Structures are given as C-alpha cells and as structure tokens.
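Renewal narrative, Specific Aim 1. Our central claim is that a sequence can be written position by position from structural information alone. The example that follows is taken directly from our test logs and has not been curated for this report. It begins with the structure tokens describing the chain, in the order in which they were read.
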C-alpha cells in the first residue's frame, strides 16, 4: 500500500511538471504541441489526486509535515516565476516594439510608404515568383505587412510547384513580382537572382494600381507588323504585359478605317515591313498635334516612309547596323549584332534602370538634330566597343572607317516638344532602332520589359507623380590606412606585443632572483 501512495506522490509532481511545460509552450508558441503536455499532465494529476484523497488520513498527515510546508512554499515561488515569465513573453509577443538603431534607418520604411499603405481600401497581395529562397525578401515585405496587416499580404511562389498561379499571372520568367488589388493585377518588375526589391519601385507600383485611369494603347497594323499572338516573333506577351498594367490595348488599321480614335492616348508602330501611305503619315502627325504620343520601333533594312514626320522632330533613320566589337552576347549563343546595354541616358524612362541589363538584337542607329523647340534625350546607346557597320552583309565585318562609325552610338531617343499653346501639355515621341526586344521570348529577358513599360508609361503620361523615395545605404565607416600604418599593425599584433609580454616576464623573474 505504501508503494502505491509513494507512486501517486511522484505521479502528482510529474503531472504538474507536464502541465507547467504545456502552459509554457502554449504561451510562447501557441502551437498544438502544448496540448500534448497539458492533457496527459492533467490526467496524471487527476488520477494521483483521486488515489491520495481516498487515503485522507495519510493526506492530512502529509500536509502537516514540515517538509510539505517548505516544499509548498518553494512550489508556489516556482509557479509564480513561471507565470511571470509566461505573461512577460505573452505581452512581448502581443505588443511588438521595433527599434531601428542604424544611422540611416535602413530597416524603416519611408513616411511616403507608410501613408500609401494606410490608405489601402481593400486587400493587396504581392506575389514573387521564384524557385529559390531569398533571405532578404521576407524581412523587407514583413516591414510592409506590419504597417497594415489587415490589407497587405505577400506570398513567395515557386512557379514550378504552383503552376495554376503561374498561369493565372502569365509568368514568363523567374523573379517576376506581381501585385493583386481587388480584380486588378500588375507586373512590378523582374528580379535577377539575389537582386533586392526596391522600396521606391514597390510603393509607386502600389500607388499606380490604386488609380482609376485606364489608358488606351493602339498598335498600328497593315504593314507586316508582328502578329498580336503567342507565335515566335509575335507581340502576344507584350499585349498581356500592357493589359496587366491596366492598359486597354487595341489594333489600329488606318488603311481600312482612316479615322483616328478619339481615345488614342498613344499609338505604336512596331517593326513595319512596308512603307506607310502618305495619308497614314498625315494621320499620325495629326495625332501628335492633338496631344497624342507616338512610339516607333524601327528595325534595320526597312523604310517605313516616315521622313516627313521624322523631319519635324529632327530624327533621321541610319541604314547602318550596330555591331559589338568584342561580342559580349556570345555567352548567350548570339552574334555581334546583339547588344547588351547596362548604361542609359538620364531620363525618367531609364531613371530606375541603373546597372540593369537589357538586350537588343539587330539594331539600327537613329540620328537626332538638336532643336530649340524639341528636347531630345538618348535613352539607349551602344558603348565605345561597338561600331556602326555600313556593309553588314559581308561574312566577317570589321571596323573600316570612314564608312563605319565608332561607338558609342545612340539608337533610342525620347523626344518632347512644347505645344504651341503654352497651357497644354507637351507632345511626346519615343523612337528605338529595334523591335526584337519586345517580341515573344525576348520581352522577358533581363530588364527588357522594364525598358518597354517605362517607355509606355512616360508616353501615356501615367507617371502618377511618383513618390521621391530615396534609397537607403549604410554609411561607409571603412578605415583607410596608409602603408606604414598597415605594416605597424602587422608587426604589433603577432610579433611586438608577444615579445613585449615575454620580455616583461623575463624582467620580473630576473628582479625576483
């Protein structure tokens, strides 16, 4: 009988320990594992107490012992410490206080971002499609979510695993960042491997997707332009990209219906293979005079017969072909006629493209004569290692002046003309001597889509007064040492200090003796 009483005592303490452990796990983590401690502990305690209460005489004697009273005091103190610990952790988990002690507030979002997030009227979800984890993305997006946890959400999606989501958002490559706001979706950018997500880019994209304006973008047809489908060399991906950015995209054939649509904010002429009719050129000039914008992607060895229109803007088409003298695109399996661009002109279109690469295959130069009435910026140029080849048909072209011209050579211009009526907005035109970079399969390469989207947004005047959020960087606290200082440190640490210690020890030993 005494054995059962002693066993019940031990089980009582064991059950109490299980209950305390379960409470600690429950408060600290809130996971279901806590109930694996709580329930068995309560059962063991109940059975032990039931057995002990059957032996009331023993129980009364047990409570009267001095050891029991001292043990009870210790138990109460231990329980109090555990309760205080649990309550402290519970309050810390519920009332999160974050302190950014960095000098430039690296881990604090700007006041503009905080205002944009607080004004979200419905849930917004950021989806990043990439197969590999990025340790920097989640902390960055957590900062956004803390400001408005009810309306802001994010998800890191592996497009190879969640095929349905990849199809829904028409994901073309790894690293795509998409926004979903109500029934709207928008592509933000395509991140390279390990590239961080930019606060200015994400916040301005959130601001843009909240807008109600839907610009109408027309694609001129009837001159052998690429088809608007998913076929190789087509423009289907470009159309889907524009529609994901809240654009309404429609084909426009001025031969069949020589009337300008009244809602045409921007018209694009992409890779025409035959010449435009004079009536079409006149309509495009009229479109520009009516505050519309024009986008021209003109490939080498073609003549769209736009001389009258281009002359008004100081532009002329060059029949040369730009070649890369060191063939940097060779690692992609491409030839000299493919250009890799990482440096851009100073313009709103390319302001966010610093050190971002875009690729263009078969590029023609575009010439611009400066004018007082037209502001022109070369947004795309080759570098000094390229040249404009006057005879690209030969098997192995080389740089042969004076017919060939040494780079850098501009092939993309953003032009802005002040309207004769000063109260009206400026007229905008962008001309690029290449169309391949927006075709299916090429648009998703590197930052081609960013170049195209920024161009269209500038032409359609949908910049939405972008927020000027300055990038944050850690202060450079690097200690610049001179040669003699470096040599002194190199001798002090491993040689002079140890020898000094040994010498001091020898001196002390000698003094004692």
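The sequence written for that structure reads:
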């Amino acid at each position: 009988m005494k054995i059962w009483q002693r066993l019940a005592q031990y089980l009582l303490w064991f059950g109490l320990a299980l209950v305390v452990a379960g409470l600690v796990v429950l408060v600290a983590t809130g996971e279901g594992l806590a109930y694996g401690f709580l329930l068995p502990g309560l059962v063991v305690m109940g059975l032990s107490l039931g057995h002990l209460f059957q032996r009331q005489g023993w129980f009364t004697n047990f409570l009267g012992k001095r050891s029991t009273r001292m043990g009870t005091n210790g138990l109460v103190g231990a329980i109090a410490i555990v309760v205080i610990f649990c309550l402290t952790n519970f309050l810390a988990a519920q009332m999160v206080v974050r302190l950014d002690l960095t000098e430039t507030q690296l881990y604090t979002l700007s006041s503009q971002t905080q205002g944009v997030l607080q004004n979200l009227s419905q849930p917004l979800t950021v989806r990043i499609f990439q197969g590999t984890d990025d340790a920097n993305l989640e902390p960055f997006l957590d900062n956004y979510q803390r400001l408005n946890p009810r309306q802001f959400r994010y998800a890191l999606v592996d497009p190879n695993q969640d095929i349905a989501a990849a199809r829904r958002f028409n994901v073309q490559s790894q690293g795509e960042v998409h926004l979903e706001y109500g029934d709207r979706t928008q592509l933000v950018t395509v991140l390279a491997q390990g590239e961080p997500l930019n606060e200015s880019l994400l916040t301005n994209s959130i601001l843009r997707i909240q807008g109600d304006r839907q610009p109408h973008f027309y694609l001129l047809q009837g001159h052998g332009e690429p088809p608007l489908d998913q076929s190789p060399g087509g423009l289907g991906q470009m159309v889907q990209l524009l529609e994901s950015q809240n654009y309404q995209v429609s084909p426009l054939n001025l031969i069949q219906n020589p009337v300008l649509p009244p809602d045409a904010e921007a018209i694009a002429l992409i890779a025409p293979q035959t010449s435009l009719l004079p009536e079409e050129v006149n309509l495009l000039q009229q479109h520009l005079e009516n505050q519309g914008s024009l986008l021209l992607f003109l490939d080498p060895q073609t003549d769209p017969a736009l001389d009258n229109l281009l002359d008004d803007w100081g532009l002329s088409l060059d029949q040369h072909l730009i070649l890369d003298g060191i063939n940097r695109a060779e690692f992609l399996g491409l030839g000299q006629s493919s250009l890799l661009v990482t440096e851009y002109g100073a313009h709103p279109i390319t302001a966010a493209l610093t050190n971002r690469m875009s690729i263009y295959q078969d590029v023609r130069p575009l010439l611009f004569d400066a004018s007082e009435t037209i502001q022109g910026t070369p947004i795309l140029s080759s570098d000094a290692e390229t040249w404009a080849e006057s005879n690209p048909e030969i098997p192995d072209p080389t740089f042969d002046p004076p017919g060939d011209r040494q780079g850098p050579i501009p092939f993309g211009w953003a032009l802005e003309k002040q309207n004769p009526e000063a109260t009206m907005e400026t007229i905008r035109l962008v001309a690029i001597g290449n169309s391949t970079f927006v075709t299916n399969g090429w648009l998703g390469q590197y930052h081609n889509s960013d170049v195209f989207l920024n161009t269209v947004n500038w032409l359609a005047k949908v910049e939405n007064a972008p927020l000027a959020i300055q990038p944050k960087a850690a202060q450079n606290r690097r200690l610049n040492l001179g040669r003699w200082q470096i040599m002194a440190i190199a001798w002090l640490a491993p040689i002079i200090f140890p020898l000094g210690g040994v010498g001091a020890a020898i001196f002390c030993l000698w003094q004692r003796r």
